[in-house]
Amino acid sequence: MLKFINTFRKDEDGAVTVDWVVLTAAVVGLAIAAYSTIETNATTLITAAGGAVAAENDF
Asked: TM segments (predicted)?
């Protein structure tokens, strides 16, 4: 039983899995933040462009 406990304690496969899960979660979080920023700025740009086009109504 003592040998099993020592072997279990030295096994680091789970630590690598936790590292990958944390890294993946960070990448997903950054992607969501980037999408939100791009969406907000694109909407602002489209609204400004539409206003500029409407203001130049020459006909």
From this structure: 20-38
First to last CA, the chain: 90
pTM of the model: 0.60
| Per-residue pLDDT tens over the stretch 20-54 | 999 999 999 999 999 999 999 999 999 999 999 98
Q: Which residue matches tokens 């680091």?
A: 12
Q: Which helix (H) or strand (E) holds 58?
A: none
DSSP conformation class of 1:
-
| Torsion sign across C-alpha atoms 48, 50, 53, 54 | negative
Query: For the chain, how are helix, strand and coil distributed in percent, rounded to 5?
Result: 90, 0, 10
